[in-house]
Structure formats: structure tokens, C-alpha cells
Model the fold of this input.
Amino acid sequence: MIDRRNLLAGVAALALLGSVAAAAAEPAEISFAASMLGEPLRGPLLTALVEEFNQSQDAVHVTPVTTPFSSFGTTMFTQMGGGGGPDVIAFDQPNIYAAAEAGLLVSLDEVVDGVTLLPGNNSLIVDGVQYGVALDISNYALIYNPKLVTKVPTTFDELVAEAKAQTKDGVYGFAFRHTQAEEAGVWYDLSNYVYGNGGHWAVDGNPTINSAETIAGVTAYKTLYDANVIPKGADAATYRRMFAEGKIAMMIDNGGIPTVLKGTNPDAAIAAAPAPLPTKAIGQVMAALAINGNSKSPDAAKAFMKWFLTLETQAKVQGFLGGSTAATPIARTKEELEKAPYIEVFDSLGDVALPFMPQGLEAETPQVRNIVVEAVMRVLAGQTDVAAAMNEAQSQVEALR
Done:
């Protein structure tokens, strides 16, 4: 059934390309922006895939656009707010809601018609309309260097102890994002500790930022920060490179990161295990493809998206994503699992993985994130304690409603 539906989707993609070609004498020019394009390993492979599309037909030509993850959302919204921006954009999941609520996106209902999508794509439906489809879906887990960590921690206390033991001789035991400059990344990393302690940012649209469980998660995050086991001031690009060089022992990160590490150092030692937190819940990050409402060639953008969701293309995408999955169900190959057995760990966490959005307040995620991260920065700086900061953040988020 899955193969047949996606085969039919491929036929639909060819039909849409034909209609675009018939409507114009010259190829329609569109652009595709994704922070993944700038990654050392996945970037060139994604770029090559785009070029494969360009070479496969003469109706549409796609130009890749690279923007760093740290400034990606801000850059896209600034451009779109001014009436411009790339035609196809790989947003992070929360930005789909914000852009849809602002009327900046094109419906993808026609694009996904006849395509079998993984359930995670349902989180990209806003008010009954499919505004995004996954480029990649990544669950978080403990990534560790098996040459350094011989006893994998299974509890938070063991994690802290192991991180302290590994911090020596130029090696740090742990790493995570912890600066305002990486607000989106801090939100992801912080949320893992909140989810892992049974907390949430909101339930049914009601903020739970100062619940006991959420406070416990923020406290765990601060505990690791205060333990002097991380390279303070290092951004994600820096400490991930350090991990690839054997200078970081552990980090809780997403399934796409092993491929990034291998792109930095093909010989990087990598293993994975479930995050050693009190509950099994963990975060799930998603880069989601969307079509800019400002696009001058929306049909060409839809044709590219249709092609991207065909079975053959999705298999190629998943083949270079590492521990992430593509938008549609693609079975792991034997060779893939033998080469990277840690993939099975990331895949096993799909049922307990949660999106990085306050449930019921998805469209307000950027504002909630900013309030919470600023509060946590004050905690890390010793300006306030966790409970007081979360109480204040709770009040500020409630005022948004």
C-alpha cells in the first residue's frame, strides 16, 4: 500500500512538472533554503540531490540557499515580512506555526495528496491545513564516545558523575548550548531535561513553566552547567567539532548529529543510548519544508516538493540523514545499520519523543522560548534561582494569551 501510494505520488509529480513546463517557455526559477545545506557532510549530499532534480527535467530550476541555523528563522521571517524570501524553506517545526498564523505559507494539501507520510508530519497541520512536510525527523538521545565512556550512565546522578570523571586532560565530560546567542538551540537542549523529568512547557494551552516537574528539569540543566564539565562559551558548532576530535565525552543531541560528526572526522568514535533521565520522554526536532506565500512560482515549488516526496528521492534523503528519518516510511537497509548501529537507538525513541513546542500554544513558541531562555540565562548568571525565574516566566507567558 505504501509503495503504491508513493508510486502514484511520483506520477503526480511528473504531471505537475508537465503543467509547469507547458505554462512557460523558460524553466521556472525557484530557490530552496535550508540550514542543512551548510553542513559538512549532509550539505553537499542535499545540494547534489537538488542538482539531480534540475538535471532530471527542464521545467523547473532550483537554486540552493545556505543560511546558518543560528540565524535561519530570523532571516527567513525578515525576508518574508518584506515580501521576499526563498520559494521553498526548510523551517524548524515551531516556525511553521508562526508563519502559517501570519499567513505567510502556501497550503501543501495538493502536494501531499496520495503520499504516505509518517505520523510526525501531522504536527505540521495548522487549522486543518498541511503547511509543512518533514525534511528530517530527529529524536534525541545520549551520544557518547565509546573510547572514553566505558560505563554508560543510566541515571542522572551517574551522568553527572561520569561527566566529572571524564573532564580532564583537555577533555570535557559533557556539552550543550547555554548562551542567549543560540536561543533556539538552548530551548531544544533545555527541553530535553524538562521532558526527561516529566515536565512540559504547556498542557492544553495552559502554561506549566513553573510546575514542579518543569522546575526539576531546569534544575538538572543548571546542575550540569554548574558542575564545570562543559566548555563554557563554546557554541554547538565548536563543541560538536570537539566531540568529533575526541575532546567531548558525551552530549544529548539529535539523530542527525552523528552524520555531522562523521563529516568533521570520518573516524569519530560514536555510540548512543537513551538519555539517562527519570522518564523516557525526550525531544524531537524536525526541519520541515514549506512554500513561501511570496513565491512568484508556487506551482514550480509544488512540483519540486512532489518530486522530493517520491519514494526514490525519499530513500536517497534518508540514506544520508544518519539517525534521522525522512518524511515517508523508508525501511533501514542492512548496510546502513551495520555501518551505524546507533541509528536503532534513535529510531527506538519515536514513541516517547515530543516536539519542542508548548502544547496548545504552538504558534506562540518563539515568544515563549524567548521568555524562558532569558529567564534561564539569568539563572545561569546567578542573578536569580530556578523557582523564582520560572515563576516570572510563567507570569510573562500567561500575559501573552
The chain has a mean pLDDT of 94.
